[in-house]
Specification:
362 residues, alpha/beta, Pectate Lyase C-like, 2 domains, 8-stranded parallel β-sheet, 6 helices, 26 strands, 29% strand, globular
């Protein structure tokens, strides 16, 4: 009998422990914006409060981080970001925090798949700019990005990432990416992305954006990512056709999509679309998001392939502002109830409880 009780107790403790580990994944982001930061601090705690619950490889990497300093004016370990990246050994297993002094770094940077656990860290409140002028005409669309990341467990904080190629004329193609994230488990805090067409290629993997700013003209957030954007401003510039998202989901079984929560949609002019069906099954949801009058009353661009009316997932949940009026929305805009909305409002959407950490101090 004692043995039976002990086994039952162990089993109950396992269940309890599992529920604690997974609790962060199921607690929804509050509807009240003033509660978002307390929610984040309660659910994305530092390593010291999460030992034994994170991915083992991540916990091992965070145990003794390496710090590299970069200052283009001298006085740091390196003068360029690329030099700092090259100093990281392939098959890296340790968190490497690259601290960037304020200034403009005119570089085209790629962090390859063999260098995971890299953090690019700017100084809070300072102007730390990573810029380049790559274009699709020279590099191909996705290779034109100023910053390309192939490595898992990437983090960036307090950076401005720009593609400085000129704005294409209305009606012409001019893809020029600021950022391409093509790896799982990446987080961006207080980062700004500037470009025009195809500013941010949010591709492949689970990603988190918090307190960010993304500017562009057409398809300025695109790709196959499973991404949660929190308290992020989406700002459309230029003339002519402007579309914020072009999510590249082409199968109903793919576990990906963009969730914008407590975000803000702004811009110049009017008639901006929240998204379009680049592929057959895009999934994009805006929740608790403030939409200015720049948003087209129809919300979403009409599908060029009519069959996509039945396969797209365009959702809006408890949004505000003049652009959030759904009276004239396209017919295939999803009606999301409270139960369904929770799926898009938790860290579970990006499996965040196993890998998401707050940014380090500078």
């Amino acid at each position: 009998m004692m043995g039976y009780i002990s086994m039952a107790l162990v089993a109950s403790l396992v269940v309890f422990t599992s529920s604690v580990v997974l609790a962060d994944d199921i607690i929804p982001i509050p509807a009240e914006k003033s509660q978002v930061e307390p929610w984040f601090k309660a659910n994305v705690k530092p390593l010291s409060a999460r030992r034994g619950t994170l991915d083992p490889a991540l916990e091992a990497a965070e145990a003794s981080p390496r710090i590299i300093t970069v200052n283009k004016k001298g006085g740091g370990d390196y003068k360029t970001i690329n030099e700092a990246i090259k100093s990281i050994p392939t098959a890296n297993k340790k968190r490497v925090i690259i601290k960037l002094a304020p200034g403009e770094y005119i570089e085209k940077v790629t962090i390859d798949v063999g260098r995971p656990f890299v953090t690019l860290l700017g100084q809070p409140g300072a102007q730390t700019n990573l810029t380049y002028h790559g274009t699709a005409a020279k590099y191909g669309t996705v290779e034109s990005a100023t910053l390309i990341v192939w490595a898992e467990y990437f983090m960036a904080a307090n950076l401005n990432i720009r593609n400085t190629a000129p704005m294409p004329k209305p009606g012409t193609q001019g893809q020029a990416l600021a950022m391409r994230i093509n790896a799982d488990k990446a987080a961006f805090y207080n980062c700004k992305f500037y470009g025009f067409q195809d500013t941010l290629c949010d591709d492949r993997g689970n990603h988190f954006f918090k307190n960010c700013y993304i500017e562009g003209t057409y398809d300025f957030i695109f790709g196959r990512g499973a991404s949660l954007y929190l308290n992020t401003q989406l700002h459309a510039v230029g003339d002519g056709l402007r579309v914020i998202t072009a999510h590249n989901r082409n199968d109903p079984n793919q576990q990906n999509g963009y969730s914008f929560v407590h975000c803000k949609v702004t811009g110049v002019g009017e008639g901006i679309y929240l998204g379009r069906a680049w592929m057959s099954h895009p999934k994009v949801v805006y929740a608790y998001t403030e939409m200015s009058s720049v948003v087209n009353p129809s919300g979403w661009q009409e599908n060029r392939v009519r069959a996509h009316d039945k396969t797209v997932f365009y959702g809006e949940y408890m949004c505000t502002g003049p652009g959030s009026n759904k009276e004239k929305r396209v017919a295939h805009t999803q009606e999301i109830d409270n139960k369904e909305a929770k799926h898009f409002l938790t860290l579970g959407y990006i499996k965040g409880s196993k890998w998401l950490l707050p940014p380090p101090a500078f």
